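step: validate -> pass
step: tokenize input -> pass
step: predict -> running
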Amino acid sequence: MPLAGARHTPGACSRAMASADDDLESLSRGELVQEVLRLRNGIRQHRDSSGHDLCWYHPQLWSLLPHESDPLPAVPEWPEFMRGCVGYRQSLDDQLAVAPRVHIEYDPGPSEQA
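step: predict -> pass
step: emit ->
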């Protein structure tokens, strides 16, 4: 779901991605296989997250990309953010109706506490 107010320029993303992936042309078959395995492992780690881990900013996933980038996300204000959280949770009921439901309170742990 696109962010409210976000602008989309048709074709801009695919042009940027094409130039960002030019490095693949110079990789050997073995290097390509190694890259695919590295990316698959990162995707699996993200896919296998569960519970409260589903709700987090995941720069470690984006760091799998070869180019240096530290995009600063646009963070919605609290009311809009919470509506998005509720919408996301509702979408899990629609898309994962058979997934088990758990009663686990969020515990930020020492590294996440302010």
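step: describe -> Residues 59 and 70 are 8 Å apart (CA to CA).
step: cleanup -> pass
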